[in-house]
Design a protein that fits this description.
Distance between the termini: 25 Å
Helix content: 55-70%
Low-confidence stretches: 2-11, 202-208
Structural class: mainly alpha
Largest sheet: none
Number of strands: 0
Number of helices: 9
Radius of gyration: 19 Å
Shape: elongated
Strand content: under 5%
Mean pLDDT: 89
Order of helices and strands: HHHHHHHHH
Length: 208
């Protein structure tokens, strides 16, 4: 999904290759506890391996962090593909499906917001290998929204996309500070209102 989260994993399943176990363990620990708070020892233990094996697959913790975020970005791209398959040729339905999925994710009590946004806060160093992953993903997410809004035929697709993008980012923060019953619970309703404000009521793409 566009707002990536953690990955469940069989921490010590010997049938799973070490590299996959390491990435899965790191994904869960980084998301739950924060990137800075988790050391390679804890990751290796959770993956049922050791530091030597971890460093055989990843030159550094920073590289492991970057791969963790790449996996989330690939998951997000897959979500958009599934959305297109679920609503072929219906951009408005795709937007509505995106909003519904984002609200479900935001309000999930087991989630801690957008993993890539969280990582961006923890990793302010521009030279960190994960920064380009974060920036590219967020840029692609915005680009997908712009293209989808353009297909809907609105006059200012970039403006609508940015409004929806910022609405989602704010919902993540609100859910963490005010809980699922706060403003984040109205993400779909507010998103629909924003979309409707850009689409003439006479349009065939108006809300159904």
């Amino acid at each position: 999904m566009s707002s990536a989260a953690s990955t469940a994993f069989p921490s010590a399943n010997a049938r799973v290759p070490p590299r996959e176990r390491i990435i899965a363990a790191a994904s869960d620990l980084f998301y739950r506890h924060g990137i800075r708070a988790v050391g390679v020892e804890a990751i290796a233990e959770a993956a049922g391996t050791n530091k030597m094996t971890l460093y055989r697959h990843f030159d550094s913790k920073d590289e492991l962090v970057a791969e963790y975020l790449r996996c989330l970005a690939r998951s997000g791209a897959k979500f958009w593909q599934e959305l297109e398959v679920a609503h072929p040729g219906d951009p408005r339905a795709q937007l509505r499906g995106w909003l519904a999925a984002m609200q479900a994710h935001v309000l999930d009590a087991d989630q801690r917001g957008c993993a890539l946004a969280n990582a961006a806060v923890e990793l302010p160093e521009k030279e960190h290998p994960a920064r380009c992953v974060i920036e590219q993903y967020k840029s692609e997410q915005r680009g997908r929204l712009v293209r989808l809004c353009a297909v809907c035929g609105v006059d200012e697709p970039e403006l609508l996309a940015d409004e929806l993008f910022l609405l989602l980012e704010g919902a993540h923060v609100s859910a963490q500070s005010l809980g699922p019953n706060g403003p984040a619970s109205r993400l779909v309703r507010m998103g629909e209102a924003v979309i409707a404000s850009h689409i003439p009521t006479s349009s065939s793409l108006a809300p159904r």
